[in-house]
């Protein structure tokens, strides 16, 4: 049985919650609920995490596996990634626990802080391409975890290749995925769904994109990939993120910002592709107008949580 995870203690281990402590706690709470309450990863587990970024999920995994467990966290991200323009992201530069492009801390700084903390001995951060890592290692894991990381991949082909590498039981018997579902249960979630589609349809035209959303892979598409590899769904469910999880606000803010339209002109030209992306953006603007608090009233969309096995 996994030890009960202390939210306040775990949040204190982030690099600098600072004035945005409620934001940090909500991000952490979201991950605790899925890792502890839904997946129930037991103490002593050996976990491979793909795409840890700044380590928000890694900390929760390390708490779950306990002193006898271990987390290998593999990410190809540049360790200096994180200090990008806030103007083009629509995010508040004082918010430390946003996705990497909106954080005042680099990925390297955040990971180093975690590695030097009380749970650091349970974690190995590995800067490597996941496909290359899987090809080079003989390690066997109890679980492979992909938590809000698939949308960072630059193409569906790269995701499919990763799934093909994970499919053999030699690496892990269980694959756990938590990803945005492109689904809204509440009216306030609709702008986030639309903003994600707008962003994905823009970034596909930018080969050098470092955006948080590059491939908006849906649950149905992900399941289809795994089915072709003989990997089955053990269970799945939709989760309503806690109120205060700001990802929806950040993404919607970036799409309604003036810079988004400039990027459409830069990468999509003035033809049909640009018109389609701008049309989705206008749908985002219209959806936001229906919320009393505007962008600040946006709720993050549903999260699809699934467990696969071979």
Commentary on this structure:
With 310 residues, the protein is α/β, with parallel strands linked by helices. Helix content is 40%, strand content 15%. The chain contains eleven helices and seven strands. The chain has a seven-stranded mixed β-sheet, sandwiched between helices. β1, α3 and β2 form a beta-alpha-beta unit. α5 runs parallel beside α6.
Q: SS-based structural class?
A: alpha/beta
Q: Helical content, roughly?
A: 25-40%
What order do the SSEs take from the amino end to the carboxyl end, as H and E? HHEHEHEHEHEHHEHHHE
**What best-fitting shape do the alpha-carbon axes yield?**
globular
Q: Write down the Rg.
A: 19 Å
Annotation field: number of helices: 11
Beta-strand percentage range = 15-25%
Number of strands: 7
The biggest beta sheet reads: 7 strands, mixed
Fill in the keyword field for this structure:
single chain, 310 residues, alpha/beta, seven-stranded mixed β-sheet, 11 helices, 7 strands, globular
Summarize the structure.
This protein has 310 residues and is α/β, with parallel strands linked by helices. It is 40% helix and 15% strand.
Detail the topology: elements first, then pairings.
Elements: H1 7-12, H2 21-38, E1 46-50, H3 56-65, E2 70-75, H4 107-115, E3 123-127, H5 130-136, E4 141-147, H6 156-166, E5 172-180, H7 190-203, H8 219-227, E6 232-239, H9 247-256, H10 258-268, H11 272-289, E7 303-309
Parallel strand pairs: 1-2, 1-4, 2-3, 4-5
Antiparallel strand pairs: 5-7, 6-7
């Amino acid at each position: 049985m996994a030890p009960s995870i202390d939210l306040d203690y775990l949040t204190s281990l982030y690099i600098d919650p600072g004035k945005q402590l409620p934001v940090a706690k909500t991000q952490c709470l979201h991950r605790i609920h899925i890792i502890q309450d839904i997946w129930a990863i037991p103490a002593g587990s050996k976990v491979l995490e793909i795409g840890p970024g700044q380590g928000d999920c890694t900390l929760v995994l390390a708490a779950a596996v306990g002193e006898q467990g271990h987390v290998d966290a593999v990410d190809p991200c540049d360790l200096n990634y994180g200090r990008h323009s806030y103007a083009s992201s629509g995010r508040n530069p004082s918010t430390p626990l946003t996705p990497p492009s909106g954080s005042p801390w680099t990925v390297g700084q955040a990971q180093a802080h975690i590695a030097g903390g009380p749970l650091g001995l349970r974690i190995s951060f590995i800067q490597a391409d996941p496909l290359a890592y899987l090809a080079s290692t003989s390690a066997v894991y109890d679980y492979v975890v992909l938590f809000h990381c698939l949308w960072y991949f630059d193409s569906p082909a790269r995701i499919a290749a990763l799934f093909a590498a994970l499919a053999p039981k030699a690496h892990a018997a269980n694959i756990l995925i938590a990803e945005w579902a492109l689904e809204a249960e509440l009216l306030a979630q609709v702008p986030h769904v639309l903003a994600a589609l707008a962003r994905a349809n823009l970034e596909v035209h930018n080969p050098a994109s470092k955006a948080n959303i590059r491939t908006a892979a849906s649950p149905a598409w992900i399941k289809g990939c795994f089915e072709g590899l003989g990997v089955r769904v053990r269970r799945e469910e939709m989760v309503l993120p806690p109120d205060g999880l700001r990802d929806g606000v950040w993404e919607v803010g970036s799409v309604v910002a003036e810079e988004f339209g400039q990027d459409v002109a830069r990468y999509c030209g003035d033809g049909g592709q640009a018109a389609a992306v701008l049309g989705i953006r206008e749908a985002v603007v219209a959806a936001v107008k229906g919320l009393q608090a505007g962008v600040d009233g946006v709720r993050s969309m549903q999260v699809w949580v699934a467990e696969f096995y071979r």
